[in-house]
Amino acid sequence: MPNSARRMPFGRILVTAGAFAAIALSTSPSQAASPPRVAQPSVAAPADCPKGYFCGYKQANLKDLGFRYKDCYMQEIPDGMGTGGSWYNNQTTGTDTYFYDKYQNYLSPAGGAPSWDLHGSWKPVWYVWNIC
């Protein structure tokens, strides 16, 4: 299981059972403030992210699919994901995904399915781990 978060790779939106929360991007390990809560509209799963997959996109707003993972282990993301991006967790309800850096140090949770982030950065992320 992941250690305590060192920094968040995405200013992300976590969605679970209709409850919505925005989590601000942390810039250093010492910044551990509680995330603000705001209502966000529901986002449907993109057509290129079928049920059962965690999908990473090279551009914001779930555009330009870079990868989709279904397996339940740590996987390296492909080169070329860039500094922008987005993701959609369309796995089985409750399946959690976590982000790790190039040294496999824990960064942050993506949250349980369904969840997403329409605007983020893949720059600090090298690995994605689906915990099933």
| Rounded mean pLDDT score | 76
Q: Name the beta content range.
A: 35-45%
Percent helix among the residues?
under 10%
Count up the helices.
0
| Shape designation | globular
Order of helices and strands: EEEEEEEEEE
What is the count of β-strands?
Answer: 10
The end-to-end span amounts to 12 Å
Explain this structure to me?
- The protein has 132 residues and is an all-beta fold.
- A hairpin with a 3-residue loop joins strand 3 and strand 4.
How do you describe this structure in short?
The protein contains no helices and ten strands.
Feature tags:
single chain; 132 residues; mainly beta; 4-stranded antiparallel sheet; 39% strand; disordered N terminus
What topology does this entry show?
Elements: E1 12-16, E2 19-23, E3 53-59, E4 63-69, E5 74-76, E6 86-90, E7 96-100, E8 106-112, E9 115-117, E10 127-131
Antiparallel strand pairs: 1-2, 3-4, 3-6, 5-10, 6-9, 7-8, 7-10
